[in-house]
Automatic annotation (TrEMBL), chains A, B:
InterPro entries: Homeodomain-like_sf, HTH-type_TetR-like_transc_reg, HTH_TetR, Repressor_TetR_C, Tet_transcr_reg_TetR-rel_C_sf. Gene3D superfamilies: Homeodomain-like, Tetracycline Repressor, domain 2. It comes from Lentzea atacamensis. Transmembrane segments: none annotated. Residues 60-79 bind DNA. This is TetR family transcriptional regulator. Residues 37-97 form the HTH tetR-type domain. SUPFAM superfamilies: Homeodomain-like, Tetracyclin repressor-like, C-terminal domain. It comes from the Bacteria. It holds the Pfam family TetR_N. The keyword DNA-binding applies. Keywords: DNA-binding, Transcription, Transcription regulation.
Amino acid sequence: MQASGAEGAWLKQSDRDRAVRLLWEPPAEPTRGPKAALSQSRVVEAAMKVADAEGVEALTMRRVAETLGFTTMSLYRHVPGKSELLDLMVDAAWGETACVPKGPWREGLEFYARQMWQMYRAHPWILQLPHSRRTPGPRTMASFDAALAVVSELGLTAEEMVAVVTAVGHFVDGVGRTMADRVKAERETGMTEEAWWDGQDALWAHFTPERLPMMTHIWTTGGFERPLDEFEFGLARVLDGLAVFIESEDRPLVRRETCL
Amino acid sequence: MQASGAEGAWLKQSDRDRAVRLLWEPPAEPTRGPKAALSQSRVVEAAMKVADAEGVEALTMRRVAETLGFTTMSLYRHVPGKSELLDLMVDAAWGETACVPKGPWREGLEFYARQMWQMYRAHPWILQLPHSRRTPGPRTMASFDAALAVVSELGLTAEEMVAVVTAVGHFVDGVGRTMADRVKAERETGMTEEAWWDGQDALWAHFTPERLPMMTHIWTTGGFERPLDEFEFGLARVLDGLAVFIESEDRPLVRRETCL
DNA sequence: TACACCCAGTGTACGACGTAAGCAGTTAAG
DNA sequence: CTTAACTGCTTACGTCGTACACTGGGTGTA
């Protein structure tokens, strides 16, 4: 059955526990039966290579099997399904990041952001996958834990520590996503970002000063020609903002009320 | 043909121009032939309703046609294909946002962020769509233009103006994405976020103090029970950080070098 | 009035996808 | 040896987007 829609997709407890076991408990080798030519780690590795090179949309079970030289269904002997394969891939990617070392909070959070950024650049497909409620793996959690540690001695409440680290994460997620989209578009069209927009004359014709005054002004003053580095610029601003918060005397408490 | 993979997906110039015309030039009514019972705007409207209620994964041409009471293929008389339908949906969503009014930069950017946030909450599927290099529509650009205007009198360079506005956008994108994932997960599982995590005993069993010291510490001190509002908290930090930048004497210039 | 287009909506069909079910061959435990 | 466990393969089903060919209704020109 295809990944199911609104109704009927209710995960059973057994499914959830299986996902947890898959990620947190290394599989025991079977004693009987023929030696497996394939293995879970080889499947995960091959899947990551496909996703890196060709994008999520090319990541099909058939494609992964093909690169390994096996049939599609042989993969299911080593991985319960595509969803769980993605879980494993994400945790493997986090495993490539270094955990934040102890030290001053600002350097630590910057390190965390740069590690995330580097991971996203190596594996942009992560940002095109559903993120929330994916069963977190041990290596994912280890990274997060180390980032929390670096803000643990600042006199913040527990909630504030979580909020500070996730604020950095959200920013990197945001920049990462547009970066990932760009990478995807360049692969699909075979054109660089510049070349693409240069060919959009039909679009530019609609950018008139009456309709889009600022856009045309910035355009004519060359503001789009040499854009600032979005990651570097934004990261510095976010850390500045967190510094204001961390170093302030009385911190405002912002409780979650309306937010889902 | 299916949406094609790595090779062979090279958009022709004619395709691009068609997408531009679709978004920027309202279609002229045909003089001959039978009156159309369906229309482009009705298709877009129905598609948005489906995506709002059932998520992107339920947004199929068949499903949209069904809600309209027409056959699947009838949609193709009004919309060139699914990709272009998505273009139209995104621009329609931006059209629901109010443009930033003139005024002080901080209030203006906060307004911009809240408008984006509100749009994402109403239409979370936008964040699950590829974003970059989607042909921008007139209403999308109008919002961006108005946001640029609010930072135009601060003595920033053109590049800096763009960087400031997109930094806010990236943050909202990041938070929005995790919000969208949560909404999707709640719809698919029929469980609230809390209920979901409460049932993850098999997972918590692996959260030992040796392995994840900070996580367990925050867990025991209740730091995950009443999380701060991620949007409100992060937005305040980002604006604080931008204030530091905007009000500083000599601004560092961060050129894009390595970034894709 | 005749008729040639044009255009709205339909029906069928194809090749992609994830994966369920069952089969054949291999190995170690009893 | 028998048997149970295990690997990998084949076949098949129900999704998806959409190409293609059609029917019939409507308007412009001859």
